[in-house]
């Protein structure tokens, strides 16, 4: 288990509350501190980490200026997925529980592989689970908008960074609602690896969303405060 403190800055917020996009960046910064111990192994074997899904569950909105203590640990390893839990506290109050599923990608073939046993020697498994993996519940899309995929959205793996998908969702909310996200589940199914136009569609009650071009790139469920 590893812990780190973060101070919520004004530029990280939507309407005075921490955005899910920036929460995800905090969580990834923390997890990378632990995962970095395996960097040499990953590079030697031409492997990459890739997020398959995120699940964010907030107990309340997180305000500008709050000091967050975030803890993370690996809770489970299946054939091709690694589960990482995140516990977010503010002054000993649990304000959020989050779960990320990671894949190990062969950099040459751009395909997920079985989690190597040698890789797991770098991590200690803590069986404490904060959240269970839930399936995305699908509904009919009734509203949609489009955004431009900018060159700055691409990361070192030459695909749109996972946090940008969340940015598009929150941007839609900025245009349609003043409420914050209470829970967000997103599953990434296809990479976005070229510039162009991306569509973001929502169900009637904004409980279900899809991010797509000619095919679905990601989908998920969301509830607001």
UniProtKB/TrEMBL annotation:
Coiled coil: none
A Pfam family matched in the record: Acyl-ACP_TE
Signal peptide: none
GO molecular function list: acyl carrier activity; fatty acyl-[ACP] hydrolase activity
Residue spans crossing the bilayer: none
Limits of the Acyl-ACP thioesterase-like C-terminal domain: 143-200
Domain of life: Bacteria
Record keywords, A-Z: Fatty acid biosynthesis, Fatty acid metabolism, Hydrolase, Lipid biosynthesis, Lipid metabolism, Transit peptide
Location of the Acyl-ACP thioesterase N-terminal hotdog domain: 11-121
Recorded family membership: Belongs to the acyl-ACP thioesterase family.
PANTHER family per UniProt: OLEOYL-ACYL CARRIER PROTEIN THIOESTERASE 1, CHLOROPLASTIC
Protein name, UniProt field: Acyl-ACP thioesterase
């Amino acid at each position: 288990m590893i812990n780190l403190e973060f101070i919520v800055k004004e530029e990280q917020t939507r309407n005075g509350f921490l955005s899910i996009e920036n929460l995800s960046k905090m969580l990834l910064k923390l997890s990378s501190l632990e995962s970095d111990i395996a960097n040499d192994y990953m590079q030697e074997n031409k492997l990459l980490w890739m997020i398959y899904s995120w699940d964010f569950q907030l107990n309340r909105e997180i305000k500008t200026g709050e000091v967050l203590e975030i803890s993370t640990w690996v809770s489970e390893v299946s054939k091709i997925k690694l589960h990482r839990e995140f516990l977010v506290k503010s002054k000993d109050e649990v304000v959020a529980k989050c779960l990320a599923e990671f894949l190990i990608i062969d950099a040459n073939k751009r395909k997920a592989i079985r989690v190597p046993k040698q890789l797991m020697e770098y991590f200690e498994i803590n069986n404490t689970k904060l959240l269970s993996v839930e399936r995305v519940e699908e509904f009919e899309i009734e509203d949609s908008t489009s955004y431009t995929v900018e060159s700055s959205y691409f990361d070192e793996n030459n695909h749109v960074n996972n946090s940008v998908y969340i940015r598009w969702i929150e941007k839609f909310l900025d245009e349609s609602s003043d409420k914050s996200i209470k829970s967000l589940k997103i599953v990434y199914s296809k990479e976005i690896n070229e510039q162009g136009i991306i569509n973001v569609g929502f169900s009637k009650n904004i409980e279900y969303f899809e991010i797509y071009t000619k095919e679905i790139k990601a989908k998920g469920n969301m509830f607001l405060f």
